[in-house]
Design goal:
Pfam families: Aldedh (PF00171)
Enzyme class: oxidoreductase
CATH class of the largest domain: Alpha Beta
GO molecular function: betaine-aldehyde dehydrogenase (NAD+) activity
CATH topology of the largest domain: Aldehyde Dehydrogenase, Chain A, domain 1
EC number: 1.2.1.8
Helix content: 25-40%
Bound molecules: nicotinamide-adenine-dinucleotide
Strand content: 15-25%
Structural class: alpha/beta
Family: Belongs to the aldehyde dehydrogenase family.
């Protein structure tokens, strides 16, 4: 039997439109399943065109209301209050996140919910300091710019870091005075449902934050809607492409954070202890379901065997299982569909010539839940699908390399370009190599170290635009330049 008893009860999820929870007009719902137990947690209202229309109508009305005109200090205080309320309800939100995703409770508590609150605290501070440009052109004219919200923004998100990623978009969108329609992933609807109420409790006027639950079709109804001005999307590359098409006729502003197949490059002069400790996290944290995970590991040949021996030994020590157990390192994959996708790659790997050094199968002895053993694969060719495609589970491939040029060539031989890590004791090499990696975020001798002011996002098929600090503000605002002749 799984799971320690919990006092927090799962919730049924309704849409949130104009400050009210509402079911779908046609009563349509779908089941929300706990991936660790396969038990039904509750039902989720499935939004259709009608709910999307209502939510956008509410947001459209609210964009003309008090929110965008509110004194900056007051709007900032409301954002701060949202962060405070998230922290006040941290245990409840963390439990809901874990029941929805299957990730360890300690991770939900210390990473997902903490960061969700910080997203609001950060932008509450940041928004106060945002200024605009002004230029004096000799004695001819003065030019200055004024900013205004983009308008109604659709926020569409995936299941891997549900509250963290929703707040990463919602906080700057609100800070800049926009109104929104959120569409959380159908697989993880609970924390966003609570977040909507938290926004109202903190003083956000009705109609500013709306939410519609549902599948891809619900998202598509938002992205093609003529009254939506911009779409901020995080999810799969193919979905990004579909959204771009749907948004084209009405020329919406787009921000995309998409998939990745991130390299982790380990040179022989790196500190092996640090490498192993961080590579364990960058490979298997959140069941490998982090867009930034380093799932393609390249190791300089002279330390290849030593690395593998140590990495495999530490990976075998990871405790996989009950997300509510504080000793669990790796929980359940998010859904049956995703579990089957990951297992299909584990079937494929030996056919492509790969060898499992550990893992390669569902967790032994588990009868319920979507648990997969942390898996390390060697022996694969650089063109194998397991090396090239995003598996998004606790599965890494390891390949040896001989020279800097050779590894760079392999690392950049992909249509993805989200993030990369590299490990070396040689400062010159660190900068030289980092500057040549085609990725939006590159870590040297670390991983996942973030400062929310820095640009976050991917190049190539991993994204369009950047989030974070000024970059988020650029996306969620429109500028007008005003010129006065002297
Ligand atoms: P997904 O693209 O399947 O779904 C994401 C969201 O889009 C969901 O809410 C879904 O309902 C909605 N959606 C699906 N089809 C749609 C359509 N046609 N129009 C509008 N909305 C639609 O992604 P997922 O499986 O939920 O998440 C995993 C993916 O997210 C991985 O590829 C991962 O790399 C990526 N991701 C990227 C980042 C990043 O910052 N770059 C962060 C986290 C996850």
């Amino acid at each position: 039997m799984l799971a320690t008893e919990t006092k927090v009860k799962p919730i049924d999820c309704y849409h949130y439109i104009d400050g009210q929870y509402v079911p779908s007009k046609n009563g349509k719902t779908f089941e929300n399943v706990n991936p660790a137990t396969e038990e039904v947690l509750g039902v989720v209202s499935e939004g259709g065109k009608e709910e999307v229309d209502l939510a956008i109508k509410a947001a459209r009305k609210a964009i003309k209301g008090e929110w965008r005109k509110m004194p900056l200090r007051k709007r900032s205080a409301i954002l701060r209050k949202i962060g405070d309320l998230i922290l006040e309800r941290k245990d409840e939100l963390a439990m809901l996140e874990t029941l929805d995703t299957g990730k360890p409770l300690w991770l939900s508590t210390n990473v997902d919910i903490d960061r969700a609150a910080y997203n609001f605290h950060f932008f509450a501070d940041y928004m106060i300091s945002v200024g605009n440009e002004a230029y004096q052109q000799d004695d001819i004219a003065i030019h200055y710019s004024v900013s205004r919200p983009v308008g109604v923004v659709g926020l569409i998100n995936p299941w891997n870091l549900p509250l963290l990623l929703m707040t990463w978009k919602l906080a700057p969108a609100l800070a800049a005075g926009n109104t929104v329609v959120m569409k959380p992933s159908e697989v993880t609807p609970m924390t966003a449902t609570v977040l909507a109420q938290i926004c109202t409790d903190a003083g956000v006027p009705d109609g500013v934050v709306n939410m519609v639950h549902g599948f891809g079709e619900t998202g598509a109804a938002i992205t093609s809607h003529p009254d939506v001005d911009a779409i901020a999307f995080t999810g799969e590359t193919v979905t990004g492409s579909a959204i771009m098409k749907a948004a084209a006729p009405t020329l919406k502003k787009l921000s995309f954070e998409l998939g990745g197949k991130n390299p982790n490059i380990i040179f022989a002069d790196a500190n092996m202890e640090d490498v192993i400790e961080t590579t364990l996290r960058s490979s298997f944290m959140n069941q490998g379901e982090v867009c930034l995970c380093g799932s393609r590991i390249y190791v300089e040949r002279s330390i290849y065997n030593e690395f593998l021996e140590k990495f495999v030994a530490k990976t075998k020590e990871l405790k996989v299982g009950d997300p509510l157990d504080p000793n669990t390192n790796v929980g359940a994959l998010v859904s049956k569909e995703h579990y089957n996708k990951v297992l299909s790659y584990l079937e494929l790997a030996p056919q492509e010539g790969g060898t499992f050094l550990t893992g390669g199968k569902p967790l032994e002895g588990s009868e319920k839940g979507y648990f997969v053993e942390p898996t390390i694969i060697t022996g694969l060719g650089r063109n194998s699908r397991c090396v090239r495609e995003e598996i998004f589970g606790p599965v890494v491939t390891v390949l040896p390399f001989d020279t800097e040029e050779e590894v760079l060539e392999q690392v950049n031989d992909t249509h993805y370009g989200l993030s990369a890590s590299l490990w070396t004791g040689d400062l010159k090499r660190a900068h030289r190599v980092a500057g040549q990696i085609e990725a939006g975020m590159i870590w040297i001798n670390t991983w996942f170290l973030r400062d929310l002011r820095t640009p976050f996002g991917g190049m190539k098929h991993s994204g369009i635009g950047r989030e974070g600090g000024a970059h988020s503000f650029d996306f969620y605002t429109e500028l007008s330049n005003i010129t006065i002749k002297l």
